[in-house]
Amino acid sequence: FGNNTTNYTTRVHKPNTNPFVTELLTLYSQSQVSNAGTRGLDKIGRGTYIHTYLDERLQPALLNGDFNLVIISGNAGDGKTAFIQQFESLAEKRGVKIQREANGAVFTLNGRIYKSNYDGSQDEGQERNDDVLNKFFAPFSGDSRKWPKNETRLIAINEGRLVDFFQEHQKNYRVLTELVEHGLDGVSNNAGVAIVNLNMRSVVASETGKPSIFERLIKTMCASVNWTICENCDIKQKCFALYNAKTFQDSIAGPKVLERLKLLYRITQLRGRLHITMRDLRSALAFMLVGKVDCDGIHELYLSGGEDNQNRILNNFYFNAVFGGDGDTNDRLITLMREIDIAQAGNPDIDLELGFLNPMTKVLNRFSFSERPEYDDELIQSLFSDLPRDYTSKERLHLLTKHRNYLSHLRRRYFFECRDSQDNRPWARMLPYAYVDKFLTVLNDADNNNKSDIVAILEAMNRGEGLLDPKRLGANLALRIRQVDKGTIRSYRLFDGSCFTLVPDGLNIDNSFVEYCPQYLTLYYDSGSGHRAKFHITIDMYEMLMRLNNGYRASIEEQEGFYLSFSVFKNMLSAVPYQEIMLTENGYRFYRINKESEGTLGMMAYDTEAGYNAD
Description:
This protein is α+β, with helices and mostly antiparallel strands. Helices cover 39% and strands 13% of the residues.
């Protein structure tokens, strides 16, 4: 799966030491040893490098001379520079002599000149960044017909700096500025310019028959060639690092565990709090596999006994480590994973079995791993034996904390490793988002014409507007006009449900060079007379809407968050002209007041089955 997998079994190393573990530590952003692996394309970077669409699609296009200018934009850690360096390495393998510069390189391949810039966001010596970029983009100023045809320039640059530069120098680069603006939104062009926005790349996006970047990276990190040396270790039957690697090496249970882990990462991405870069992903996965210490530190950890140390060791097993283990961390991605920690929720029926029955009672309900150590069972069995049986003592709070900590281990492991039964996925009920499956189904349906999804969303919005039985209004949206303190009558505007469509985002994005998957739904309103509005529905918004439909009463904070997002949509809808309003006292019986052509007002009772009846 990687470009260069290092064989650690053919070298002589210090006993009880796997050098690959030490190298993985350098990928962790908060590593106490070294975080050199988070920057550039060093040994571990090359050994775990994952081919993406950039390598599979953009690289051949560059070799064919399809583009005169390639701008790779994104955040720090997206792998922009790494791709350019990989491309240069490919040219070197073909016998090309490369002229290295401080921040790039120049070489000729197949009669075509290639010039690269590794980081277009920085100064170069005494030369200011604006001057550096002006010099780099100079051939692409003015009319595109005069741009060079036998040269390709490649630049890696942060999106913010790219936008700022072209806004400031728009007069000199009118054509290129327009291409950049559209390209960052995922629109392709025919001008020989490739704008690759890696902020749109999803590490969990996959297509039929091909695993995601996320899946391939884990398999590369856990490749048996990197862990064979551990078979000679004195604590191979106890080591959490080897346990973690063996989990994902298993050909039957491993993919199932990986799929559940991938879903957690997908949820984290859908929340929109962080664009997951390659650096973020490598850091989080390296921590999940080996924690914070090298092999010497792992051996030292196993020298001590006691309940505290048992918990410390258990917190390094993958099912705990994926949520950050036992200590504080400033790692961006792990911090977000903690917010959806399976152990922080509760399922009474599941918790009753996990928290009070002997952990070996239903061992057959979990996956079996033929070659994985079983030291986690020993630790958990020991902790279970020490659980209190009486919670009435003065140390009640301490005892409850002790039991809750024990249950956390069991919940997390059960989530990843419990077996599915027919039409039953117990682990899915443990997710913090009860409607994530439905959200993903709608999100992945590009040709969604299912009106029931729209109706469900409109009904939930109606409930949020204070209607207890929105079905009485049919498949329509009712928006409250205003709230009057101590008012006894509520007034609403009614919008025809047939004017709404539901579409996943990104349908028009050109994803030729980035792995992309939609992030949110967009509810469109079109009156048919030129009035339009749209409302972005994220996973958090969808979750709350669906809960409202099932009788959930949102807290004040949740209501404020909902209305903050919803108010923009309401304001756009309020611009639509209207000639009638709906009135109700109790949310069940409605009256329609409309302005008739002669200027008089009429009032009728509204019945969803019989329509309007004069009252």
